[in-house]
Design a protein that fits this description.
The protein has 1014 residues and is mainly beta. Helix content is 9%, strand content 49%. It has twelve helices and 54 strands. Strand 37 and strand 38 form a beta hairpin. The radius of gyration is 33 Å and the shape is globular. It starts with a helix and ends with a strand. The N terminus is likely disordered.
Length: 1014
């Protein structure tokens, strides 16, 4: 009886338990693209009961009575708590959490959680990078990272100029170091943007110093996409097609404006050229005072050009391995027509990771890039700007011209042909670039979760094969012979890194210690030859004969350079480095690195570069109880970095060849050169950074703010030896960059279907020369267009006269304070510039020149907005900069060649009598050397504001077609640079060095894109 009673009680208990339990299942997806999320933690609130989602994002849980809340959490996504409310199926769409403090950030030779950072590091994710249709990944960062200036370039295949926190060297490079999956690069033109998972910019010395001597200008860390463990194979196509549109095309004087200008100059020679155009081409029926030709040369050479990119990636993985393989094709035609001016690139990549044992992980990736780039002759832009509008493109009367009857301004009497079509049609410049990049590693876990050792080998082979062909032609007056120049450069860089890492947690104490050794080798070979008067003569239709014949090789135009044979050309580098990071109770943070680098470039072979960073998380303190603040950290760092980018120095007297006459006989010999470069020290960058990181209002608002002072000490600079008129280099310079950086971002969900985000950043920059080795200044620039580095002023600032206006009448001239002798000597009349006499001595001379501006902007900024409604996403990015100047060097060419066209703004606003203009001189005044002296007439404000990117996306997710599931599809429409607002008289206000002599236009780009996931 007791047995039956116990059995009955047990049965009732089971039945009762069964009734009290609830089974819940569902699927977890990403709200960004609707893709399933594997590995999401699914936890019953206030219990240890939970599970993780499988590779398809599915989960299943059993809940007991009273267990009503499930918590979903995943790195990079906002945690969600869901009330069961009697439901058995609960599907979740997780929102990206851009302010997640647990997100992993890539740092030098490792990773850290964002909340543990003490350095200034900014990260841009793949979805932001892919919004920009470009061959150059760094272009996608423009306006998105405070303190990083991106200067766009429009030429196909040309990368942007990148500056991180200003310029700190007079002779070395200012570009950052690029580290792609552990390999060092000077540029990343081989990368397809669709293959990039993230880009992290290490801005301060504390973050960058672990990479040594090449990191003085900042470091850009790039991680490429990998597969996922336990993931079924996924095939992704991503591509776009679009058009590039020339915008802000500079207006040049038309035939009527030009004819008026020529007559106003009073130049008999130029008027004679104008009359020759009447005789050759006749008079316009609309205006008989103008020749019957009105050529808009920019309209003749520019075109709307296509751009496209296509990539296919297959990724996935099993329990012990993951992989990603893919191929891509990019093609961009140039804005110039009638010539080959484009860029085409094929990429293949493979990335594999394998858990060979529970203590050993191995893997590697290979990236092969083949690119072909055709570069238009720079003279095209120069001639297009200066070509007179009274000249046609083709001239049937120029019968001696061949193979095409192009016009020639020389026939009218002008100094040069002025027709850019000679450079468009009769030149072909091709670069074939091949890069093979490989990385292989083995990671040994010596003590589980504590001690590990990783060794990796990086291989970078590059080949650049350049072929320049000049076709034979006759311009109607003289023949030009054919020629071919070929140059092949190969390079091989290798890096072997070995890293030992120890991690330990003891109560509230967490620390990590890393030590490493690195060996680097860089070599290059170059071979070139040039030949002229080839037979058969090359032409566009016989490319199979574009080779240099032995008999056509020019004497002195063959060369062979091998870095192996140069003591200073080949670089072997050995480095030792270490890092320690300490975290106490998530409140107090300490981070320090040390690197010892060796080089054969300078007399000081070794350099030691330490850094330290500290952080205090106030929000974790017991006394801090302010609910609107979810996280608040104060951080500070200091560090030193070496810079080896300056040209190498011999460091001792050398023998140079010479010849002299002895007894009437020429004798060859050698003599000692006692004036030699001696760079006994490294250029060293010392930087202090103070920052604040915060999250507020339930993590909806994020803040990153930094103030930095970066001093480049012992900068290599020329020391002028006035008695012998020579220069030597010494480590004597000090250059300071300082500024404030601020980034704010806000994101919120209005409803389940509607969310939005708003963000912005800004950065100030003060660049200052603080020491020039006892010299008051150093000159730069060309001829009259002077730049000068002066103590207390920006590096290589524009230097010249201040224009106070234009003399309107003789009375203003006589009362100007200038001496009559100076007025007479310079023939100053109304319509000439009134330069400011800085020292009031009655003459305008070098003592009156002042700093007129810098090409470095004092303020850069960017902001963005985004709205998501169901499957529709709309984003817009804006950026701009101010506080910098551009030297309009094109206008300055009048100093050397007067018989050219001028821009329409100048033509319309020339001084034509009292009160007509106080900005521009008269037409006759433009021809006078006095008015063409370097002044702020040539130096213009480069400020601009731009709508950088507008993107509309629509996603088709979890759809069916005829009862069968459709692949996930996203369609995008993108407008890149649709509007730029600026006052500068040029195509665009982005000029890398601030000197605009012949700048390739930067187009607006409009694309339609498609992403398909299978």
């Amino acid at each position: 009886m007791l047995k039956y009673l116990l059995s009955l009680m047990l049965a009732l208990a089971v039945i009762s338990g069964a009734r009290a339990q609830t089974n819940v299942s569902g699927k977890v997806t990403s709200s960004d693209d609707g893709q399933p999320l594997p590995g999401v933690n699914v936890l019953v609130e206030n219990t240890t009961k939970g599970t993780v989602t499988d590779i398809d994002g599915n989960y299943s849980l059993s809940l007991n009575e009273g267990e009503n809340v499930i918590i979903f959490s995943f790195i990079g996504f906002a945690t969600q708590s869901v009330n069961v409310s009697g439901r058995s199926v609960i599907d979740i769409s997780m929102e990206s959490d851009i302010t997640s403090l647990d997100e992993i950030v890539v740092v030098g030779y490792g990773t850290q959680q964002e909340k543990d950072l003490t350095s200034a590091i900014a990260t841009v994710k793949a979805e932001e990078i892919q919004k920009t249709p470009t061959s150059q990944a760094m272009q996608a960062l423009q306006g998105k990272v405070a303190g990083v200036q991106i200067v766009s370039r429009g030429e196909p295949g040309e990368g942007p100029k990148v500056r991180v926190r200003g310029v700190g060297s007079l002779q070395g490079k200012s570009d950052p170091l690029y580290v792609v999956d552990g390999m060092f690069f000077d540029n990343i033109d081989f990368l397809n943007t669709a293959d990039i998972a993230s880009i992290s910019v290490l801005k301060d010395a504390s973050a960058a110093a672990i990479y040594g001597v090449r990191a003085a200008n900042g470091v850009v860390l790039i991680e490429t996409k990998s597969g996922s463990y336990d993931q079924a194979p996924q095939i992704v196509y991503d591509g776009y097609y679009g058009v590039q549109v020339p915008q802000n095309v500079l207006k040049m004087a038309n035939a009527e404006q030009f004819s008026q200008y020529v007559r106003e100059t009073g130049s008999s020679a130029d008027i004679a050229f104008l009359n020759a155009a009447f005789q050759r081409y006749g008079r316009s029926r609309v205006n008989p005072n103008v020749p019957d030709v009105n050529t808009d040369w920019y309209d003749e050479v520019l075109q709307t050009a296509p751009i496209q990119n296509h990539s296919i990636t297959i990724s996935g993985g099993g329990q012990n391995s993951r992989y990603a393989v893919g191929a891509s094709y990019f093609d961009q035609e140039g804005l110039l027509q009638h010539t080959r001016n484009d860029y085409e690139r094929f990429n293949f990549r493979s990335k594999v990771d394998f858990d060979a044992a529970n203590w050993l992980n191995v893997g590697g990736n290979v990236n092969i890039s083949n690119a072909t780039r055709y570069v238009a002759d720079n003279a095209v832009w120069f001639k297009t700007y200066f070509a007179v509008p009274i000249l046609p493109v083709y001239d049937d009367q120029n019968t001696d011209a061949e193979p095409f009857s192009l016009s020639n301004a020389k026939i009218l009497g002008y100094r040069n042909s002025q027709n850019p079509f000679y450079d468009l049609l009769y030149n072909d410049d091709r670069f074939k670039v091949t890069k093979i990049l490989a990385n292989f590693y083995a990671d040994f876990e010596i003590l589980p979760n504590k001690l590990s050792f990783k060794t990796s080998y990086n291989y970078n082979f590059g080949s650049v094969n350049q072929r320049t062909v000049d076709f034979a032609f006759n311009d109607g007056l003289s023949p030009v012979v054919s020629g071919i120049k070929k140059q092949n450069t190969t390079s091989l860089d290798e890096i072997w890194d070995n890293i030992l890492t120890f991690n330990e947690n003891i109560g509230a104490h967490s620390f990590s210690i890393m030590g490493g050794y690195s060996y680097r080798s860089e070599t290059a070979d170059l071979l070139f030859a040039k030949g002229t008067e080839l037979n058969p003569s090359p032409n566009p239709d016989n490319e199979e004969y574009w080779y240099i014949d032995n008999g056509a090789i020019d004497v002195g135009e063959v060369g062979d350079f091998d870095d192996e044979n140069s003591d200073l050309g080949k670089f072997y580098g050995t480095s030792y480095f270490g890092r320690i990071s300490y975290n106490y109770d998530d409140r107090y943070l300490i981070y320090g690195t040390f690197r010892r680098d060796g080089t054969n470039k300078f007399q000081e072979k070794w350099g030691n570069f330490p850094t330290v960073g500290v952080g205090w998380v106030l929000s974790e303190e017991s006394f801090f109880d302010f609910k609107p603040v979810n996280f608040l950290k104060i951080r500070a760092s200091w560090g030193k970095l070496g810079n080896d980018s300056s040209p190498a120095a011999v460091g001792k007297p050398t023998l140079v060849g010479t010849e002299t006459a002895i007894g009437g006989i020429l004798v060859l010999g050698n003599e000692a050169d006692v004036f030699y470069d001696l760079l006994e020290k490294w250029e060293t960058t010392e930087e202090t950074n103070i920052g604040i990181s915060g999250r507020f209002l339930e993590n909806k608002l994020s803040l990153e703010a930094d103030y930095y002072i970066r001093d480049t000490e012992d900068a290599a600079l020329p020391i002028v030896l006035p008695l012998v008129r020579d220069q030597i280099r010494r480590n004597r310079g000090v250059i300071r960059n300082s500024g404030l950086e601020l980034a704010l971002n806000w994101s919120d969900n209005i409803s389940e279907d509607l969310s939005y985000s708003v963000g912005g950043n800004l950065a100030t920059l003060k660049n200052e020369v603080r020491d020039l080795g006892g010299q008051p200044y150093l000159n730069a620039g060309q001829g009259e267009f002077r730049q000068r580095s002066i103590i207390g002023e920006p590096i290589e600032a524009f230097f010249g006269y201040e224009v106070e206006g234009v003399f309107q009448n003789e009375g203003q001239i006589s009362s100007s304070g200038l001496t009559q002798e100076f007025i007479d000597a310079n023939n100053i009349i109304p319509g000439d510039f009134r330069f400011k006499d800085q020292n009031n001595d009655g003459v305008i001379d070098d003592l009156d020149r002042v700093v007129l501006g810098s090409y470095l902007p004092k303020l850069t900024y960017g902001f963005n907005i985004g709205v998501n409604y169901k499957n529709i996403e709309l984003t817009a990015n804006f950026q701009g900069q101010t506080g910098h100047s551009i030297l309009n060097r094109k206008r300055g060419e009048m100093l050397f060649t007067t018989d050219t066209n001028i821009d329409a703004d100048l033509a319309d606003n020339l001084w034509r009598g009292e009160g007509t203009s106080n900005e521009y001189p008269s037409a006759a005044g433009l021809r006078k050397a006095y008015n063409l002296s370097m002044s702020d007439y040539f130096v213009e404000d480069g400020s601009y504001f731009r709508i950088q990117n507008v993107r509309l996306a629509y996603s088709l997710i979890n759809r069916e077609l005829f009862g069968a599931p459709m692949p996930d599809v996203r369609i995008t429409l993108t407008a890149e640079r649709p509007l730029t607002v600026f006052d500068y008289n040029g195509f665009n206000p982005e000029v890398a060095d601030g000197i605009d002599r012949q700048t390739y236009p930067i187009p607006g780009i409009y694309t339609i894109g498609l992403n398909i996931k299978l």
